[in-house]
Amino acid sequence: MSATRVCALSELEQDTARRVVIGDVPIAVVLDSAGEVHAIGDTCTHGAISLSEGFVEDDTLECWAHGSRFSLRTGAALNLPAYEPVPVYVVQIEGDDVLIDPTVTKEF
């Protein structure tokens, strides 16, 4: 699969997660306070909760239901109750388009 346009960069709100679904892959897209765009799996590994409904702070996304925080850079679970990471996807910016390939994840 190739990268798919998920939104315009100008549509992203800083420090707010946006849920997109490519095929059957839910992804949380975040424009952080430093202006960097991140894409991580949108499902909390502690429970089937959408992370895009959570809270962005610096380079983390917090699950609104359980309080687990995930690194936007590595996908690592930073505190309990979650301990498994979420996938992190490669983001491409072309002009004002945000593109993600859900078959390409970053390795850490």
TrEMBL record:
InterPro entries for this protein: Rieske_2Fe-2S, Rieske_2Fe-2S_sf
Pfam assignment, any one: Rieske
Domain Rieske: 4-100
Top-rank taxon: Bacteria
Keywords carried by this UniProt record: 2Fe-2S, Iron, Iron-sulfur, Metal-binding
Protein name per UniProt: Non-heme iron oxygenase ferredoxin subunit
